[in-house]
Amino acid sequence: MGMGRGAGATALGFFHILPVFLCIFPSATSPCKILKCNSEFWAATSGSHHLGTEEAPEFCTALRAYAHCTRRTARTCRGDLAYHSAVHGIDDLMVQHNCSKDGPTSQPRLRTLPPGDSQERSDSPEICHYEKSFHKHSAPPNYTHCGLFGDPHIRTFTDSFQTCKVQGAWPLIDNNYLNVQVTNTPVLPGSTATATSKLTIIFKSFQECVDQKVYQAEMDELPAAFADGSKNGGDKHGANSLKITEKVSGQHIEIQAKYIGTTIVVRQVGRYLTFAVRMPEEVVNAVEDRDNQGLYLCLRGCPLNQQIDFQTFRSSQATEGRARRKGPSLPATPEAFTYETATAKCREKLPVEDLYFQSCVFDLLTTGDVNFMLAAYYAFEDVKMLHSNKDKLHLYERTQDLGAGNLAPSGHPQALLALLMALVCLSQCWSAFL
Questions:
Q1: Scanning 184, 255, 287, 337, which has its CA 20 to 30 A from the CA of 321?
Q2: Does domain 143-300 correspond to CATH entry 3.40.1000.10?
Q3: Mean pLDDT (whole number) for 214-241
């Protein structure tokens, strides 16, 4: 059913008021994430200058995604004016466009290029290439990185770095497009030092691009194919948008999932596996209910009771000048490292004393296996290849227990910048009203 002029004017009026909300209520000062919902909806629909009946299905899809986003952030937005305005606006637009509350949503948002702009070959539809689905004048997608290696250390999508126990099976990634699960087992009998011995990746079926595919790797078995023996996304028209490439036989494979803009690197170093991924933020956040989602290591990190006090362990080793294992009465390891010999060994491959270097030292002390030095080295090599911000490759521990008046250097400038941006934006909005 088409909509009348009054409904169209109301919808367009709502579109015009959205930027005002984006200015007046800066998200940097509130846990309420309604502005993210507003901006996603605005970006998904801003290309439509008129709202005719032929656009109703696409518009309804964007509205449902908008409504779903507001429900996810409802808990932290109860007193937020922008939130309540958005909720009422969505209800009105749902009625005006005869949109059903049940139906598909639009995450991730895969834009359609104007005719003539697509450079995709006929065997790979445009929707099956995430980057090319963005218009040439649109802002490029934001990419993020997660990595898991060693005994085990994780760098999350938010660049948090943790050392964890996490023995057994744990979800590493869990969103609408793929699942990754790792299994960590003890390095030595009786030891609490663990490393990744099994990895399972499930790529879910996606439109006309790919069939569901499963990739599995275990100790001493790093296949260069999916579990069904194939090396691409199956029989669909865009199957080549998912592909496995063997870089080094039995040691290094790379999976390109172009339809979701994702690159995955899996290595076997010694007997154990490492994992690294580059993924658009939009795909990372494509989950049904992020607030109530189960544990997801790349997004939330390890639970507190699974984290190891990395700094305390390192300090004790440096003070005592000898290797001390995490578990009591461990059997002899292939090589007994002291803090000094472990440090010297790690400097051979990791000259910068960042957290990758410290992880290397930690792993040599807890396992005695020199292959863990190589795991840290290759993990950092993968970061250099996959991380989008080259200024954030190295991570360092923050200064602990800073007293009043002795804040970390990055604290005040960020707060001042956020305040300045809010004042500028508010000033612009008031000017628009006058």
A1: 184
A2: yes
A3: 94
